[in-house]
Amino acid sequence: MERDDLDQALLQAHAEGDSTALIRLYSLAADTAEGAGDIDRACFYLTHAFVFALESGAPEADPLNARLAAQGRAHRLVF
Hints:
Blueprint: H1 3-16, H2 19-35, H3 39-56, H4 61-70
Helix pairs in contact: 1-2, 2-3, 3-4
């Protein structure tokens, strides 16, 4: 997904309050940033995905937390 398309999809998901889409899209943005070697940007997006996963009780919270912990950006939590 192109950056502009991803940004538009994120804005739409925010407007709709679609937590599932927000988790998926922020995770995709994190994957893209990580692939480009931009760990700070990747962790920024991972944090957003993680927060939405926590708020909605989504199972993605655990692997997102693990990714952030592996980068030294969070403590590993037990779910």
